[in-house]
Specification:
Helix content is 55%, strand content 24%. The protein is of the alpha+beta class. The chain has a two-stranded antiparallel sheet with strand order 1-2. The longest helix has 32 residues.
Amino acid sequence: MIRSVRISPAVATAFLLMILSGCATPQQQCIARETSDYRALQAQIAEVEATIARGYALHRQTIPYSEARFCKTSSGAVYPCNRTRFHRLETPVTVDISAQRKQLKALKSKRAKLSPRAEAAIAACRHAHRE
């Protein structure tokens, strides 16, 4: 069962500002800096919720491999060369769903404590760096 996560409009607006802008304004930089713990916690909650919904966790690893190709020197001479590429492998891992639910409950409790601080930090950033 997938549950929606509710966040305050102030925090949602801050996230959208950061995503939509390639070059962050001082206000956006302030918000990003001051809400990094909250955003990391949100990502952790989303991961645990996805694990519960799937019924298993995913072990992610990045595996390097070589790709044979041809390269050119500055004078135009062609020679064989290798390029390192990376492949991402996801492997299912069994987990204790009841333990995941306990972890999710603890994470949500922590989020409830961090949320007022994040909202206050956003308000302070908006006040300090008016756009």
